[in-house]
Design brief:
Number of helices: 7
Strand order of the largest sheet: 4-3-2-1-5-6
Number of strands: 6
Radius of gyration: 16 Å
Distance between the termini: 54 Å
CATH architecture: 3-Layer(aba) Sandwich
Helix content: 40-55%
Shape: globular
CATH topology: Glutaredoxin
Order of helices and strands: HHEHHEEEHEEHH
CATH class: Alpha Beta
CATH superfamily: Glutaredoxin
Structural class: alpha+beta
Strand content: 15-25%
Largest sheet: 6 strands, mixed
Length: 144
């Protein structure tokens, strides 16, 4: 039994391991963008993510895009069982475009549909207590 558990733990993807079940603090914030397929909404999300890359990085934000065909994030591809785990954890239906913002405390902060208003996301993050502390200690290198 112990060998089976070890094998299962070793097979979990890096992204799924980045989202611990019982942690009070994560090293980053996350936006998980779930989509039913690779479509215009995914392409627009990725284009906007590139446009706002500096602001995203400045906020310790990891972005992961997940469709049934593929799941990619900063840490590379996500195994299908990792996608299923995250879909179940955040109660996302297979046929919907849903983005979920997760704070460094590991809790869901906001969710929205196919269109992402990054300025609104940044305002939500900037109002978080941990982010306020970060802003006191660091000056922005991004032009708004």
């Amino acid at each position: 039994m112990k060998q089976v558990i070890v094998a299962m733990l070793l097979s979990i993807s890096g992204v799924a391991m980045s989202y611990p079940l019982d942690s009070d603090y994560w090293a980053h914030r996350s936006v998980l963008f779930f989509a039913p397929q690779q479509d215009h909404a995914v392409e627009q999300f990725l284009a906007d993510e590139m446009r706002y890359r500096c602001q995203i990085q400045e906020r310790d934000l990891v972005v992961v895009v997940m469709t049934p065909q593929q799941a990619l994030g900063k840490t590379g591809p996500v195994a299908s069982h990792g996608v299923s785990y995250l879909r179940d954890k955040y109660k996302v239906e297979d046929n919907k475009h849903i983005a979920v913002l997760i704070g460094k405390d590991g809790h869901e902060k906001h969710r929205w549909g196919a269109t992402t208003n990054w300025q609104e996301v940044f305002e939500i993050i900037d109002a978080m207590p941990m982010r306020k502390q970060e802003m006191l200690n660091n000056t922005s290198v991004c032009s708004a």
